Amino acid sequence: MDNRQKELSDYRLHQAEESLKVSKYCFDNEFYKDSINRSYYSAFYSVKSVLAYGIIDFKRHKDVIGYFNKEYVATGVFPRELGRRLGTLKQYREKSDYDDFYIVSKETAIEQIETAVLILNSVKEYLQTD
After folding, report:
1. Is the pLDDT of residue 12 over 70?
2. Are 87 and 11 in contact (CB under 8 A)?
3. Is the pLDDT of residue 130 over 80?
4. Is the pTM of this model over 0.85?
5. Maximum distance among all Cα pairs of the chain, rounded to whole angstroms
6. Rounded Cα gap, residues 36 and 17, in angstroms
7. pLDDT band at 21 (very low <50, low <70, confident <90, very high)
8. Which of 60, 94, 103, 120 has the most other CB atoms within 10 Å of its CB?
9. Using CA atoms, how far apart are residues 23 and 33, in angstroms rounded to an integer?
10. Please, which residues have CB within 8 angstroms of residue 51's CB and are 6 or more apart in sequence?
11. How confident is the model at residue 10, as a pLDDT?
């Protein structure tokens, strides 16, 4: 393992943790659309922290998620439920960021925070054992 890869992975994990804190702050202040956005980015940075150890990286979100699902979820490294929830979170983020008049419920926002926590914790556990 290359030290630069570990540093990049650690940096991305830190970004994931910060985004999760901001998501919770937004939730607590009833900014549910912003909370979903930051929950998604927490999950996204978590996934990118895993990919930091590989030889390939992507700029587009759909490529990052697709590769993660193909190489890590479909192969059983991470459970399919995690991949499904990541996909759902991505859909909610896109709706809340791009659809006019989209209303996010408190329940949806808290579910997506829970997804971000699940993904972050799963990634941390994986990286500790790798």
Report:
1. yes
2. no
3. no
4. yes
5. 47
6. 14
7. very high
8. 120
9. 9
10. 57, 58, 64, 67, 68
11. 96
Q: Which CATH architecture has domain 3-129?
A: Up-down Bundle (1.20)
- Backbone torsions φ then ψ of 61, nearest 5 degrees: -60, -45
For residues 72 and 122, the answer to whether their CB atoms sit within 8 Å is no
Structure tokens at 112: 């997506």
Q: How large is the C-alpha radius of gyration of the chain?
A: 14
Of 21, 112, 125, residue with least CA distance to 79? 125
Name the 3-class secondary structure at 77. Answer: coil
Dihedral angle computed from the Cα positions of residues 17, 21, 22 and 27, in that order, rounded to the nearest 10 degrees: 140
| In the chain, where the domains are located | 3-129
Q: Quick one: pLDDT at residue 1? A: 58
What lies within 8 Å, CB to CB, of 124 at 6+ separation is 13
CA atoms of 9 and 102, how far apart (whole Å): 34
